[in-house]
Input
Amino acid sequence: MSIEETKKEYKPLIVAFCCNWCSYAGADLAGTSRLSYPADVKIIRVPCSCRVNPLFILRAFQRGADGVIIAGCHPGDCHYTSGNYYARRRMTLLFSMLDYLGIERARTRVEWISAAEGVKFSTTMNEFAKTIHELGENKKLEDLRCKELLK
Amino acid sequence: MSSLHKIGVFVCWCGSNIAATVDVAAVAEAMRAEPNVVYATDYQYMCSEGGQSRIREAIKEYGLTGVVICSCSPRMHEATFRKAAQSAGLNPYMVEIANIREHCSWIHKDRMDATAKAIVLARTALAKLNLNQPLTAGESNVVKRALVIGGGIAGIQSALDIAEAGYEVDIVEKTPTIGGRMAQLDKTFPTLDCAACILTPKMVDAAQNEKITLYTYSEMESVSGFVGNFTAKIRKKARHVNEDLCTGCGLCQEKCPSRKAKNEFNMGLNTRTAIYIPFAQAIPNVPVIDTEQCIHFKTGKCGLCQMNCSAKAIDFEQQDEIIERQYGAIVVATGFRPISLERFDEFGYSQNPDVVTSLEFERIMNAAGPTKGQLVRPSDGKHPHCIVFVQCVGSRDTSGCGKPYCSKICCMYTAKHAMLVREKYPDVEVHVFYIDVRTPGKNFDEFYRRAVEQYDVDYIKGMVGKVSSHGDKLQVQGSDLIADKQIIIDADMVVLAAAIEPDPEVRKIATMLTASIDTNNFLTEAHPKLRPVESPTAGVFLSGVCQGPKDIPETVAQASAAAAKVIGLLAKDKLKRNPCVAHSDEMLCNGCSACEKVCPYGAISYMDKEFRVPGPKRTEIRRIAVVNEAVCQGCGACTVTCPSGAMDLKGFSTKQIMAEVDAICR
Output
C-alpha cells in the first residue's frame, strides 16, 4: 500500500457526546430527515452535557480519538435548568489546557443543538469531521499502550 | 462480575430501514464473537410481537443477564424493549439500545461504512451493558390537581375536560379575563357561527365549575418539582378591585376620567378607561385598574371610582399575592399573537391607519367592536368601496423578516372576511392576493369556493410589492402571476394577513418547566407523530397554538387530547420514578459540599455518620453527602464536580461511559 493510498483511507475517529433531551434528539431528527454526515462520528448518549467528565475526553484522546465534540441544549433551554452552563465552563477550561498540551483547539468543540435542529446537527458534524480530516491523526495524547492492550 | 454475564444481541432489520444499508446478519455475526455474548440474532421487526417474543424466549432459554438491541433510537422503543425484558423476568435496566437506524442506516449510504459503524455502536452498547446494574424504580405520589397555563379556548377546553373527570384544575391567565384570542373574533370559519356565541358559554362553564379555579390577571412565578409533584408559584397581580365585593356594575368604568389608554382588546383601534373590564362578557366580570394610566396612582388625586362604588370594592392598597400550590400535571396553553409588522414597511402599516391587520379587521367587523360592526375606514370613518386583502404577510418567508412556516389559519379567515364583506356590503369590491390557497380541512375548500363563486371575490395569485397613499386612496402595486403582469389597484383599505407567532411569554414558561422549544418558539412535542400533546418533560402537556399553528377545531381537539393525557396521569396513585439518579459512595465522600452547590434541584444534603476506623479510636464521625432519590432528576452535574469521585450516576456511571469511549476508540 503506497503512502498516497494510506492517506486516502484515513478515517478520523470522532466521539460525540450528546445530551438526551436536545442534541441526541437533534441527531435522531437528522436521521429521520436523512441528513447525512460521515460515519466517523459515533455518538454517546448522556443525560445532560454536564454529565461529560473532562476525564472522558482525555480518555478518548488517549485511546486514539481524533476529535471530540460535546453537544447540549441551547443556553437557557437545558432540561435540567443549568447543566449546559456547567458544561460550557468546564469545557472552556479543559480545551484551553488541551490546547496547551498540544491538542489543537479545532479537535474539540462544544455546540448547542436543539431537538428541532436536525439540519444544524448534520451540518455541525459535517464541518467538524472535515476539520478533523484536515488536521489528520491525533498523536499527541494517544497512549499506544492502551491501544496495544485492547488489540 | 462481567464474566458472569450472558448477553443476547438482537439486531433489527426495521423492514428495509436498517437492513437496506446495514448488513444485519454481519452485525449479529460480529457480536456473536464478542466476550459474554451467548446469543445473537437478527429479525425483521424487533418491536413487533414476534420480535418481542423472541427476546423473551431467548432470555428464558439462555438465561440471559442482559440484552443489547440494535434498532431505532432509544427515544423510540427503549420502553418497549424494557417491558419485554421485564416480562421475561429480566431487570428492565439490563437492556441497552444501539441506535443503528437514526444514527446509522438512515444517514449513511455506503453499506460497508454503515455496517462497520453499526458493529461499533453494538459493541459500545455491549461495553456499557457489561457494567449495568439492575435498577429498581422507586415510587412517588401523584398530586391530584392540574395546572393549566393560559385561559384561551385551548386552556378552557383542557380545564373543562379535566374537571369533568373529577379532578381539580387551576387556570392561570395573564390578562384580566379568560377567553383569549377567540373572544376577539367575530365569526368563525367554515360555519360562520359567531365566536362569542360558542365561546362565552364555555367561559361561563369554566367559571361555574366547582372543580375549576380561575387565576386571572396572574402570572407564573416559578415551577419546581417533577411529574406528579410540581410546585408552582403564581403571582396574582393586584387588580385594585376586590373580586369578592365587586358586583360588576361597571359604574367605575363610566366615571373614570382617564380615557386615553389603548384598548388592547380592540387591538388599539380605540381607547379605554384606566379602570376597565376588557369586554362585556369578560370572566370574571370584575374590572382592573391600569396603574400606569390611573390618575390616582399617578398623582394621588382623583379616586372617583372609589367614591362611586357602592360595593366598596375599590382597594388602592391591594398588593400582589403569591399563591403556592402543588400539581400533578401541567398543561401549557399560552397561545399566539400576530407578528409585529414593523419590518414590512412596503405595506405602509405603520404610516397608514387604513392598512390594518386581519385581527384589527376582525374587531372592525365585530358588532361589539370599536365601530359597532360598521365597516368604516379607521382614518376618516368613511365607508370603503374597495378592499385589498394580502395573504402570507410574514408567513412562509425565508428572507428572515418573517416566519418560515405557514400560519395555517390565514387562507381561511381571509376567505371569511372577504365573504362577510361581500355579504353585508355587496357594493364593496374585494381583491385577495395569495401565494397559494391552502384549504385542507372539513368543508374548508367548499367554503373558499363559495367566496370565489358565490360572492365573486377576486383572487389574484401574486404578491403585493408596495402600498402607498395617493390622496385618500391606497395605491396597491402587485403582480398577477397567472396573467403575468403588474397590476395597480386603488383601494380604500388594505388588510394584511399577518403571520402568527407563539406568545412571547412562552419562552419564560418553557424555561420554568424545562420544556423544549424550537427555533420558532413553538413548544416541542415528545414525538411529532405519536406523542403530539406531550412535552418531552414528563408531566407537561401541550394544548393549542403554543405547539404549532392551528385553527379552532384543531385547538379544541388537541386541548381535549392533552386533557385525556392529564386524566390518565392523575388517575394513577403512584408513579414510577426514574431510577437513574445520583448516588454517593460514603466511603469516598469527604463532605466537601461541591456537589450540593451545583445541584439544580437541591437534592443533596449532608449528614454526619459514624464510621469504624482502625486504631484506638475505633470510630469517627464524618460528614457525607446524601442524595434524595425522590428529588434527583439524574442530570449528573454533581458527578463531574465531585473531586473525590464519590458521586456517580446510576445508569450512566463514569465506568460505563468510559467503557463506551473505549469501545468506540477500539
